[in-house]
Amino acid sequence: MPLKHDGMTLWCKAECLQPIGAFKIRGAWHRLSDLTEEERARGVVAFSSGNHAQGVAWAAKRLGIKATIVMPADAPKRKIESTRGYGAEIILYDRRSEDRIAIASRIAAETGAVVVPSFDDPWIIEGQGSTGLEAMVQIIAQAGIHPHRVVTCCGGGGLAAGIALAMPGARITVVEPDGWDDMGNSLRAKKIVPVAPDAPDTVCDALLTPRVSPLTFEILKERKADAVSVSDAQVFRAMRHAHERLRLVLEPGGAAALAAVLEGKVEVDDRTLIILSGGNVDPALFSKALAS
């Protein structure tokens, strides 16, 4: 959808309007629908702070697959309840002291379930990339132009890497929360740099990935993606702006890319695509953003 900004028309892809409220449904469906019958019978296990969890649970329910989801205990209540509502079994963990990958791997070893990573997987990356393909077709249909810059949030990098592959002619800018900008630091260092152990708290729960994967990192490095980070206050302003101008409800992580644009951290023009990646936010936090 178009968004007027400083005399320009920017283009926003509202993934918050997906059935689960986020783009993660794309990769989850692509991965699970490609499982063999034998793999489906064994079930799946995933780890996520909420949106991938809901995507996997949603797809598993429709495909008749048992799903177990490892989620942080401090994930938004709405995301935990929605995931459970789709029929998945929830295993909670402490994101500061426990390793979600290790927990999922142990469950897979004990039950035979197929691990469905949130970003470190070719099927997931390919599925998320459909966001860019679809947006490109829509912008061409509405305005007759090809977007040549994409601004997108980044946690583990599955969405950004998928779009980078789907739109090879576009420049990619990834946006992360301040202190959790491991993809940006990795791209600048040309090697993977994990998040510091004392990383600050942030409202962007969907973007808290301690370490990016070699797969997503190499794709974005090869595509010469650049990166910026945003503060919680800047994210709150973007959430309010999206609500006032686009009548959309965005979660903090879903508003990160827009925040970078509104704060002038990214050079944009009329051929810029902004990914509004999700809208699964607890009412109290959304009210806080509107009042900030």
TrEMBL record:
<dbReference type="Pfam" id="PF00291">
    <property type="entry name" value="PALP"/>
</dbReference>
<keyword id="KW-0663">Pyridoxal phosphate</keyword>
<dbReference type="InterPro" id="IPR036052">
    <property type="entry name" value="TrpB-like_PALP_sf"/>
</dbReference>
<dbReference type="InterPro" id="IPR001926">
    <property type="entry name" value="TrpB-like_PALP"/>
</dbReference>
<protein>
    <submittedName>
        <fullName>Serine/threonine dehydratase</fullName>
    </submittedName>
</protein>
<keyword id="KW-0456">Lyase</keyword>
<feature type="domain" description="Tryptophan synthase beta chain-like PALP">
    <location>
        <begin position="5"/>
        <end position="278"/>
    </location>
</feature>
<dbReference type="InterPro" id="IPR050147">
    <property type="entry name" value="Ser/Thr_Dehydratase"/>
</dbReference>
